[in-house]
UniProtKB/TrEMBL annotation:
Gene3D superfamilies: Calcium-transporting ATPase, cytoplasmic domain N, Calcium-transporting ATPase, cytoplasmic transduction domain A, Calcium-transporting ATPase, transmembrane domain, HAD superfamily/HAD-like
PANTHER family: CATION TRANSPORTING ATPASE (PTHR43294:SF21), SODIUM/POTASSIUM-TRANSPORTING ATPASE SUBUNIT ALPHA (PTHR43294)
Family: Belongs to the cation transport ATPase (P-type) (TC 3.A.3) family. Type IIA subfamily.
Protein name as catalogued: Haloacid dehalogenase
Pfam families, alphabetized: Cation_ATPase, Cation_ATPase_C, Cation_ATPase_N, E1-E2_ATPase, Hydrolase_3
Any one GO CC term of the record: plasma membrane
Originating species: Clostridium thermosuccinogenes
Record-level Gene Ontology MF annotations: ATP binding; ATP hydrolysis activity
Residue ranges occupied by any Cation-transporting P-type ATPase N-terminal domain in the UniProt entry: 15-88
Length: 939
């Protein structure tokens, strides 16, 4: 039934492209005022939500079972079988149990990591602007229904299939559907031509595509799985996720260690058979113990989990990371290319000054509340008694799209829908007593040439109430003063147009520079009366910027303040300490950029080099690289030029993070190692191209994310170091047994090795993945991407330094029991209770050393007491679990049988209790020495 309805609907809308706008709306039972909220609700019940239903995940059972088929698992299964064959059923069962526990543990960690990333996806909702109940509203894209009137503009992702009912220079990128990456022109006129494929029809737009430029209004035809995108969604959902560099590195690491482990196993096997003459099965089990001792099982899932947890922490700090792999790259970031407006500054524009050739004004009041005065000298001025001022403010306000929404309740603030630069223009007009709504009714807008960061300006064309100098239409333009002034041939003074002289041009730029030097943002406003004589095309849709934006008459300057974000200066300072460079790349004027850059400490020198977009265009790559070695600011650049800066920095060996918000920023965002899109002001296209999205548009959030990125990598290192520590004490007792040709009875059995690796070590290790960024982590230079997880430092520290200390202690514990029982006067016990007590002590000593070690691994250089010795709850829980487990193994008879243990006495316990503080003490001394030494070399 449902299917039939869909088919019917599709049939009836198949020819919608041929209808007029009115008929198309009628067919979908809607009109220019949009649906009512009730109707929208009713339709949602009928057609469902506008979502592409997710393809079913892999069967959880298969995912679960995949944890039991890895190299390590197969070894253990085989080991279990051999134990059974060799008539050691208890050992066989135990080995299998260990395997099962390990599998469940890995599955649980992966599951948690998966849940965390899934939650993250939900944090990126997509919104759409629609007209409902006759008003423009922003709704969740999934709430769109057929018949909704949707508004689109440059950078928007299109969320449903729709028929255009209005458009202005609209171009759409349909590459997701057609593979063709050049933007396609779209227009609302009926299409009668036959033989076009659906995607070629100019008045149809499709879900999953995006707006490259222009604006439009469209009526929704179909949503969710009935859209063209929904129909092919199956294909895209089968795309495989790439492994991240860290995952690849870990794979490699696990393989390398496995090879070491298996080689050690083979050597031990051969030695056991030929040197000690052990039976084959026993020798195999023995060497299996060695292999297990070395293989870092649980490494991958723990790493994935700690990445996922970092991603969750970052999300709370306003940085949404789209891929886990981005976290690690963040840690290596050595340059951040940041734009200015909104990222370093608050993007809360307030007009502070107005400038006409003959008069300057100050504007009082802060924010978007229309409360404040326009003052010239000491006197309050209003638009009513100053024609030039009225024209300046009316033109600026009418050439804007943003709306200011008054507070809904007492406590709420004024909010902005649209571009803040435009919003403040409406506010200042109101302060001067201009009724903007009335003005836009008197001179209705006919056409818009939208703002474009390459042109750095925007124009609108209006119908005049009555002809002026024989002209019926007027174009208003506002934009960057340099760009606008280049188009002006006249100046408006004392209510009339004069020719613009060079001297006047110079005065205008002088005024612009004066404001810019104080970090203010300046827009120039101009107009052009359009007459029949201008030979403009008849159809408004044929107007282009080249035809309209010329021969303009300059009116004045509007000056706005956009203060730096208060937290940015500290974040910049942090970056400098961390040897991370910040390069400002802005579309704004050089002097404004320089002033802001100095204020927040991005540049320190008196005269940093400012490279303009034009200059950059004329530079060779070599010259650019040379310039990038010093302090530099890029100003008045087009977004496309960011790409060049990023790729040159990368060629210089940097790991680059770059911010962006517009469609044209996408190439740079994709090229960068970390593309950062703005969550509030960013377009959907930029968000899609980015690796990370800032939900507060704030530069400081990037720096916090870098800090997390560094911390995660360090945590993984801490984790690896911790599990390596216990490898040597696990292997050395067996070596002692072998090389003494059995003279030293085996101090640690295979079952006991398994217990340490897969039982007691696991949970505390997990806690290391949750450590918070260490103090001083941002006082070091970034790690290079070449640096590997398992470096010489870790190998020496893990295997040789702590490994040997632990081995000596473990063997010491073994001999301690024997000594208490008469050794060396009697031979070392090789069976019976004393032997069991001795092996129990070797095992327990390693476990107790590892308790101290996990606390040591929490910090790299800082004293662990600084972060609170017991501060990590996951680790503390792990330690308690570990203590419980070892006590059970020592005291529960059935476990004693499996693990070959025996109860120990008070002397033995005293020996054990001393170990964790001893291990912590030794490491604290090492850290203190390393801190001092480190300081000396830094000086
Ligand atoms: P950043 O690149 O740091 O975000 P920006 O906002 O100044 O700074 P663009 O958005 O590329 O960069 O704008 C370039 C210039 O265009 C601005 O400096 C300003 O002079 C002008 N401009 C910005 N917004 C508008 C607008 N809505 N209408 C007209 N001109 C604008």
């Amino acid at each position: 039934m449902e299917k039939k309805n869909e088919a019917l609907k599709e049939k009836s809308t198949e020819n919608i492209c041929k209808l007029t706008v009115e008929d198309a709306c009628k067919l979908l039972d809607t009109n220019a005022n949009g649906l009512t909220s009730e109707e929208a609700k009713r339709r949602q019940q009928k057609y469902g939500r506008n979502i592409i239903s997710e393809k079913k995940d892999k069967s959880p059972i298969l995912v679960f079972l995949s944890n039991f088929t890895g190299l390590m698992a197969i070894l253990l299964w085989t080991g279990g079988i051999i134990a059974f064959v060799a008539d050691m059923p208890q050992l066989g069962i135990a080995i299998w149990m260990v395997n099962i526990i390990n599998g469940i543990f890995s599955y649980w960690q992966e599951h948690r990591a998966g849940k965390a990333t899934e939650a993250l996806k939900k944090m990126l909702p997509s919104y759409t602007r629609v007209i409902r109940d006759g008003q423009e509203q922003q709704i969740l894209a999934e709430d769109l229904v057929p018949g909704d009137i949707m508004l689109i503009e440059e950078g928007d992702k299109i969320s449903a299939d729709a028929r255009l009912i209005a458009s202005s220079d609209l171009q759409v990128n349909q590459s997701t559907l057609t593979g063709e990456s050049n933007p396609v022109r779209k227009a609302y006129d009926p299409v009668l031509r036959e033989g076009l494929s659906r995607f070629e029809i100019p008045n149809l737009i499709f879900a999953g595509t995006s707006v490259s430029s222009g604006t439009g209004k469209a009526v929704i035809i179909s949503t969710g799985m009935s859209t063209e995108f929904g129909k092919i969604a199956d294909l895209t959902q089968t795309l495989k996720e790439e492994k991240s560099p860290l995952e690849k590195e870990l794979d490699k690491l696990t393989k390398q260690i496995s090879i070491i482990a298996i080689s050690a196993g083979v050597i031990f096997f051969a030695a056991a058979v030929f040197f000690v003459r052990q039976p084959l099965a026993q020798a195999f089990i023995f060497s299996l113990g060695m292999v297990v001792a070395f293989i870092p099982e649980g490494l991958l899932p723990t790493v994935t989990l700690s990445l996922a947890m970092a991603v969750q922490r970052m999300a709370k700090e306003h940085a949404l990371v789209k891929k886990l792999s981005a976290v690690e790259t963040l840690g290596c970031t050595s340059v951040i290319c940041s734009d200015k407006t909104g990222t370093l500054t608050q993007n809360e524009m307030t007009v502070s000054n107005l400038w006409l050739l003959d008069q300057e004004f100050e504007v009082t009041g802060l924010g978007y509340a229309p409360e404040g005065k326009i003052i010239a000298g000491q006197q309050e001025v209003s638009a009513a008694n100053n024609g030039d001022l009225k024209l300046l403010l009316t033109a600026a306000a009418l050439c804007s799209n943003a709306r200011v929404i008054p507070p809904k309740e007492e406590s709420e603030r004024y909010t902005v829908l649209g571009d803040p630069t435009e919003a403040c223009l409406g506010v200042v007009a109101k302060k001067a007593g201009i009724d903007v709504d009335e003005q836009s009714t008197l001179t209705p807008r006919l056409r818009e040439l939208p703002f474009d960061s390459r042109r750095k300006r925007m124009s609108t064309i209006h119908q005049l109430e009555k002809p002026v100098e024989g002209c019926r239409r007027i174009a208003y333009i506002k934009g960057s003063p340099k760009e606008v002034l280049e188009l002006c041939t006249g100046i408006h003074r004392q209510n009339r147009r004069e020719e613009l002289t060079d001297e006047q041009r110079a005065r205008i730029m002088e005024a612009n520079d004066k404001y810019a030097r104080n970090g203010l943002r300046v827009l120039a406003v101009a107009y052009r009366l359009m007459s029949q004589k201008d030979n403009l095309p008849a159809a408004l849709s044929a107007y282009t910027p080249e035809l309209v934006e010329r021969d303009m008459t300059f009116i004045g300057l509007v000056v706005m303040a956009d203060p730096p974000r208060p937290e940015v200066a500290a974040a910049v300072e942090k970056c400098h300490k961390a040897n991370i460079r910040i390069i400002m790349i802005t579309g704004d004027y050089g002097l404004t950029a320089e002033s802001i850059a100095k204020r927040i400490g991005i540049v320190k020198g008196e005269h940093p080099r400012i490279i303009s977009g034009t200059e950059l265009g004329n530079m060779s790559d070599e010259e650019l690289k040379e310039a990038l070695k010093d302090e530099v600011i890029f100003a008045r650049v087009a977004p496309e030029q960011k790409y060049r800066v990023v790729s040159n920095l990368q060629e210089m060996g940097h790991v680059v993070a770059v911010t962006g918000d517009g469609v044209n920023d996408s190439p740079a965002l994709k090229k960068a190692d970390i593309g950062v899109a703005m969550g509030i002001s960013g377009t959907d296209v930029a968000k899609e191209a980015a690796d990370m999205i800032l939900t507060d548009d704030n530069f400081a959030s990037i720096v916090r994310a870098i800090e997390e990125g560094r911390a995660v990598y360090n945590n993984i290192r801490k984790f690896i170091l911790y599990i390596l520590n216990s490898n040597t004490p696990e292997a050395l007792p067996s070596a002692a047994f072998l090389f003494s040709r059995g003279g030293i009875p085996l101090p640690l059995t295979v079952m006991q090795i398994l217990l340490i690796d897969l039982g007691t070590d696991m949970l505390p290790a997990l806690g290391l993945g949750t450590e918070l960024p260490e103090k001083g982590i941002m006082d070091r230079p970034p790690r290079t991407q070449r640096e590997t997880l398992l470096n010489r430092h870790i190998v020496i520290k893990g295997f040789f330094w702590y490994g040997l200390i632990e081995s000596v202690i473990a063997l010491g514990a073994y001999f301690f029991v024997n000594m208490l029982n008469g050794w060396p006067n009697v031979p070392l016990a090789s069976s019976g209770v004393i032997y069991r007590q001795a092996t129990t002590m070797t095992l327990a000593a390693i476990v107790f050393c590892q308790i101290g070690m996990v606390l040591n691994c929490r910090t790299e250089r800082q004293s662990v007491f600084k972060v609170g010795l017991f501060g990590n709850r996951t680790i503390m829980r792990g330690i308690i679990f570990e203590l419980l487990l070892i006590s059970l193994i020592i005291y529960v008879p059935f476990l004693q049988e499996i693990f070959q243990t025996a109860p120990i006495g008070i002397n033995e316990w005293l020996f054990l209790i001393v170990l964790p503080p001893l291990i912590v003490f030794v490491e604290e001394v090492r850290k203190a020495i390393s801190r001092r030494y480190f300081k000396i070399i830094r000086k």
